[in-house]
């Protein structure tokens, strides 16, 4: 069984940039999974630090309006991995999931850590590269010319253990619901 993880699509991250294309892609994949009756699980990162954009209970920690209406199952986490100290594994096992699709924020942290953690737990993993986004840039890492999504996608692709697809490739290979 396939399941979609929608990681940290929260106001405190989404409001830090222009992510309309990524949000549109995320919503289309959510819709695809929902139409096919496949599980969609939302991860929500919360921090206890009051200065965090994802401070527990703040507006920043809430799911963004573009995805909130789809969120029937939400699991909170406090680390980059969606598996660490959460009930994600037991939820997936209960659903019979063996193949996870990774989308959300931040590409190089929570999406990457979760993809690797999922593989380590025996799941087939498909990382939807342009269905992830990051609030960081080449300047954040002082690495001029760095395109974070492409870099993370390349690293995962070269690993030969995690499938990396662009949204258009996903549609061709996995489109679960009929086109609208």
Automatic annotation (TrEMBL):
Gene3D superfamilies: Isochorismatase-like. The keyword Transcription regulation does not apply. It comes from the Bacteria. Pfam families: Isochorismatase (PF00857). The keyword Coiled coil does not apply. Keywords: Hydrolase. GO terms for molecular function: hydrolase activity. Residues 3-142 form the Isochorismatase-like domain. Belongs to the isochorismatase family. This is Isochorismatase family protein.
């Amino acid at each position: 069984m396939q399941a979609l993880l929608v990681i940290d699509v929260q106001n405190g991250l989404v409001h830090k940039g222009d992510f309309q294309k990524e949000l549109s892609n995320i919503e289309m994949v959510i819709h695809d999974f929902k139409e096919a009756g496949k599980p969609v699980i939302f991860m929500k990162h919360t921090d206890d630090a009051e200065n965090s954009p994802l401070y527990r209970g703040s507006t920043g920690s809430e799911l963004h309006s573009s995805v909130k209406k789809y969120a029937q199952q939400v699991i909170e986490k406090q680390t980059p991995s969606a598996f660490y100290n959460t009930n994600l594994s037991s939820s997936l096992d209960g659903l019979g999931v063996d193949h996870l699709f990774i989308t959300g924020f931040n590409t190089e942290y929570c999406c990457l850590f979760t993809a690797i953690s999922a593989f380590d737990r025996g799941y087939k993993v498909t990382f939807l590269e342009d269905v992830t986004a990051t609030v960081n840039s080449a300047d954040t890492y002082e690495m001029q010319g760095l395109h974070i999504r492409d870099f993370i996608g390349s690293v995962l692709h070269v690993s030969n253990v995690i499938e990396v697809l662009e949204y258009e490739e996903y549609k061709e290979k996995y489109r679960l619901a009929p086109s609208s």
